[in-house]
Amino acid sequence: MAEAETDKMDYNMAEKAEKDVSxxxxxxxxxxxxxxxxxxEATELYGDVQTAEEYGYVSRGLKSRHIQFIALGGTIGTGxxxxxxxxxxxxxxxxxxxxxxFTGMAVFGMMQSLGEMATWLPLPGAIPQxxxxxxxxxxxxxxxxxxxxxxxxxxxAEISAASIVIGFWNEKIxxxxxxxxxxxxxxxxxxxxxxxxxxxxxxxxxxxxxxxVGLLILxxxxxxxxxxxxxxxxxxxxxxxxAMKEYLSKGDTGRFLGLFSTLVNxxxxxxxVEMVAVAAGEAENPRFAGNISIDLGTYSDWQCNRKNIPKAxxxxxWRILFFYVLGSFAIGVLVPSNDDKLLNPTKPGAARSPWVxxxxxxxxxxxxxxxxxxxxxxxxxxxxxFLYTGSRYLFALAQNKQAPRFLLKCSRT
Length: 413
Prior knowledge:
Layout: H1 2-19, H2 37-46, H3 49-55, H4 64-73, H5 78-91, H6 93-120, H7 126-134, H8 137-166, H9 175-191, H10 194-223, H11 236-242, H12 251-270, H13 275-279, H14 299-303, H15 308-334, H16 340-343, H17 354-362, H18 367-399
């Protein structure tokens, strides 16, 4: 009896969800928009069908698995694999661990709030629109253009890093050739249907997740003495050269400044985590995972599905824990912060990565090239993601009438 009452309650909630939708996202559910859902959404946004047909609208082509893997691995680039080495040299392993943990706590809280807004109002390039709608137009303008600038700069940084990473194998070819190839790749992944972008990010994220899980297992094995040299490390490097290093000053003040300096590196590594909210505007069904028909279909179909965007946002917790917190901890027990290869890297690319340095120190010859390939795919994936988010920020600004109107123009795909 209680189970029947619960089922009835869930069905009523499903019906309410069909009726109580945000103004910007009912084009896919209204029967008048079933045939041309993009035109339906664009008409509600621009006010008339003629303008909607002139400019078009983004298509909801990102599947549930695309959104989930974007949440787990999207925009993770060279900051985690390469840039973290500089923070270790400067501040020490404990400072890096604490810096990434503190930043992760702030990011997780922010993502919970942003996830609620993105579920209610799943718009492309949502963040500037949230600021303009619920705070002030000036805030939407400032946030939108600053986020676009950040995406543009980070895009260039990741492309440059990817070209340098290739130098691990071949330093004779000019990096301009590799930069050109990566630009062509990234543009091609973004210029066609958004489903192609989503599929690429799905596989890129799969590679990152597989690699980081493998590296964490490897770190545990090496730390316990399971490597070729059978040297049990424990917390040796937290004692010598030390867990927290002094920076710009002496004593406790210097150690605090060292900890504080890691927040800059952590912020760069975490950048782009809000991409789930940006992609929500192009998710097939942002409120429910799976395929739900326009008139909700059967009750059992709805009952078997979970919410899509909230589910993706909750998975950001695991991304923070495994990629950043446990990753920084693992590096801290494998590599001393005064290692010569960290202080004076002699080769580009993966040779600067503390992960690769740890593998070299353990005497494993094959893995550095594999890790370098992963770093290359991570940098390319991050560049791909930042080009996507930057274009959506411009689209959102144009919707807010804070950018040129021609930026509203969308291709048919």
